[in-house]
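ok trying again, last paste got cut off:
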Amino acid sequence: MVRAGSGKTLAARRKRTRKLTKGFRLSRHNLYRQAIVTLIRARAFAFRDRRAKKRQFRRLWIVRINAACRMRGMRYSEFIHGLQLAMIALDRKSMSEIAIHDPGTFDKLVEIARKAIPAPQAAVAK
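nice, full thing came through this time. structure:
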């Protein structure tokens, strides 16, 4: 014989699911079967995008640093290489904030990086 499909536990489970799908459009928050499928996808996207967010912010910081470097006549890659040679360990987030909020300090960082890069040697003519 088939077991009963209603009762306190089932009603509570459905209520919890409907609460989690609050804000979903159309029948995705009303109809239980659709709500479950949508909730599974929403959680999968949330898991994926927590990691994607970190990548996107790093790209944003690099773009900001590059723009600030180019205003001072230097490329981003040269700047980072110069800082590595000068043994300066700053993360890109803090360098981006410095470039926006404290241009004077960023000027000093660019100068330090410029001094740390060795001058190119003249080509020997044969």
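cool. The mean pLDDT is 93. The chain has two domains: 9-51, 52-116.
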